[in-house]
Amino acid sequence: MTWHETERAWLADTLRATPFDAPTLCAGWQARHLAAHLVLRERAPRAGVGAVGTAATRGPEAAVQRLAEDVDGPAAYAALVDAFAAPPARWSPLSWAGDAVNASEYFIHTEDLRRGAGPVPPRDLPDGLRDLLWRQLLRMAPVRLRRLGPGLVLVRPDDVRSAVHRARAGHGTVVARGDVGELVLAVSGRLQAADVRLEGAPADVAAVRELLTGP
User: Fold this and answer.
1) So what's the pLDDT on residue 45?
2) CA-CA distance, 28 to 125, in Å (whole number)?
3) 198: containing domain
4) Residue 121: is its pLDDT beyond 50?
5) Quick one: average pLDDT of 2-29?
6) Structural domain count of the chain
7) Tell me, what's the pLDDT at 96?
8) Parallel, antiparallel or unpaired: strands 173-177 and 151-155
9) Is residue 170 left, alpha or beta, with left meaning phi > 0 and alpha meaning psi from -120 to 50?
10) What's the pLDDT band for 140 if we cut at 50, 70, 90?
11) Would you say 206 and 182 are in contact if contact means Cβ atoms under 8 Å apart?
12) Rounded CA gap, 27 and 25, in Å?
């Protein structure tokens, strides 16, 4: 199996083990909203993509809300999870997007569920998945951090590091230390739930924390 297939299965199992009305790390969303987002992301991409954690566009957010409102109990929730657990249709762009689009997405949403009610031990990630997440993190981080004043250097426990954002004038550089999965969560805007240590001048650390902490 590819990593996105493995992570889809893990995410589906995590959804099944989570009550439909359980909180998640996505602001205002219960598990049923996250399941709705995942289904719409593959079956109606315009409605599902871009809605996570923000009302950036009213269409996606409204579509997720409508589908989630239909989930009024365990049976309806189980059906929605089963719909996500099945691979997307051939016509869906996500049917051929593979690891490049889905691996980090599924990993992050699994943690949205696992950590929604509070801290839990991190998953023990296989080396291959850890390496894939690291590569995808290095591509994601410059985009996510483009408005940040301080620079940011990511450092793994094995001391592999990468400068993912250059400091702007008047700012220093912050070092973020943590396991790869924790760094992925932090850069995706879930710093408050990630086991990551920030090092740097207090004002610069505060700026990084503000950008990377969800509402």
Assistant:
1) 54
2) 28
3) 129-212
4) yes
5) 95
6) 2
7) 66
8) parallel
9) left
10) very high
11) no
12) 6
CA atoms within 13 A on the CB side of 14: 22
Closest to 41 in 3D by CA, of 2, 111, 115, 97: 97
Whether 22 and 83 share a structural domain: yes
- Decide: 23 and 32 in contact? Cβ < 8 Å: no
173 vs 201: CA distance, rounded Å: 8
Query: Does residue 165 sit within a domain?
Result: yes
| DSSP 8-class letter at 192 | G
- CB contact at 8 A, 107 and 61: no
The DSSP output letter for 195 is: -
Residue the block writes with tokens 């250059």: 166
Q: Are residues 109 and 133 in the same domain?
A: no
Residue type, 1: M
H-type alpha helices, 70-126: 74-85, 94-97, 99-114
**Tokens standing for residue 176:** 């973020």
More reliable by pLDDT, 95 or 198: 198
Tokens matching residue 132? 């894939």
